[in-house]
C-alpha cells in the first residue's frame, strides 16, 4: 500500500464465511499506529488444512480396502482439492489402482462397492395388507440401501424391481401401489 511507512501494519479483513481455499479478493487496510492511513483491495490466497488418507502399506489393485491400512494426515491446500478421497463410514471400497505406502489416496484410486452386488442372494419380501410372503432371490443388478435393484424371483424366474431395505432384504415394488 502506498503511504505505508516503517512501523506501519497491514491488516487483511476477511469476510465472514470464507471457507474454501483459493484466491480471494479482499479489503486490506494499513494502520499507522492507531490511525488507519490507507485502504485498498488485494488478492490473497486462502489456505485450508484438510484431512487426507495416506496408505500405511502398499495396496494392490482390487484389494478390498480396510481402514487399518490407512491413516489420516492434515495437509494444507491453497485450492479446493477436486479428487480428495473421503472415507464414508460403513461403506466398502476396492482399489482401482495400486498405491504405494505413504502415498495420498485420491478419489480415482478407489471404487465404492455397492451394499449388495450382482449375484448375491437376498431375502425378497412382498406385502399386501397384513399378508407377507418372502423368498430368497438372486440379485441381478446391485445397488445401495434405499435404491431400486433388479432381483430374479426364483418362483417365477422373472426379474422384479425391489427397493433395498438393508444389505440382506429387498421389498418388491408392485406397480400402482404405494410402497413403504
Explain this structure:
There is one protein chain. The chain contains no helices and 12 strands. The chain is elongated. The protein has 180 residues and is an all-beta fold. The strands form 4 sheets. A 5-stranded mixed β-barrel has the order 8-9-10-11-12. The protein has a 3-stranded antiparallel beta sheet with strand order 1-2-3, with no helix packed on it. A two-stranded antiparallel ribbon has the order 4-5. A hairpin with an 8-residue loop joins strand 1 and strand 2. It starts with 8 loop residues before the first strand and ends in an 8-residue tail after the last strand. Helices cover 0% and strands 49% of the residues.
Overview in brief:
This protein is mainly beta and 180 residues long.
Instruction: Please state roughly what percent of the residues sit in beta strands, choosing from under 5%, 5-15%, 15-25%, 25-35%, 35-45% or over 45%.
Output: over 45%
- Average pLDDT metric: 81
The stretches of 5 or more residues where confidence is low (pLDDT under 50) are none
Radius of gyration: 27 Å
Tell me which oligomeric state these chains represent: single chain
How much helicity do the residues have? Answer: under 10%
> How many strands?
12
> What is the topology, as strand order, of the major beta sheet?
8-9-10-11-12
Q: What is the count of DSSP helices, taking H or I runs of 4+ residues? A: 0
Q: How far apart lie the N and C ends?
A: 65 Å
Amino acid at each position: 500500500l502506498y503511504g505505508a511507512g516503517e512501523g506501519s501494519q497491514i491488516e487483511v479483513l476477511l469476510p465472514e464465511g470464507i471457507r474454501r481455499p483459493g484466491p480471494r479478493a479482499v479489503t486490506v487496510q494499513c494502520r499507522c499506529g492507531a490511525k488507519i492511513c490507507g485502504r485498498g483491495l488485494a488478492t490473497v490466497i486462502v489456505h485450508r488444512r484438510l484431512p487426507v488418507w495416506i496408505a500405511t502399506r502398499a495396496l494392490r489393485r482390487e484389494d478390498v480396502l480396510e481402514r487399518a491400512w490407512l491413516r489420516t494426515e492434515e495437509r494444507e491446500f491453497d485450492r479446493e482439492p477436486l479428487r480428495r478421497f473421503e472415507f464414508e463410514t460403513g461403506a466398502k471400497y476396492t482399489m482401482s489402482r495400486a498405491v504405494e505406502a505413504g502415498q495420498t489416496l485420491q478419489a480415482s484410486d478407489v471404487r465404492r462397492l455397492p451394499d449388495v452386488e450382482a449375484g448375491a442372494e437376498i431375502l425378497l419380501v412382498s406385502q399386501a395388507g397384513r399378508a407377507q410372503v418372502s423368498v430368497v432371490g438372486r440379485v441381478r443388478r446391485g445397488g445401495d440401501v434405499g435404491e431400486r435393484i433388479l432381483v430374479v424371483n426364483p418362483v417365477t424366474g422373472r426379474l422384479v424391481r425391489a427397493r433395498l431395505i438393508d444389505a440382506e432384504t429387498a421389498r418388491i415394488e408392485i406397480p400402482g401401489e404405494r410402497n413403504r
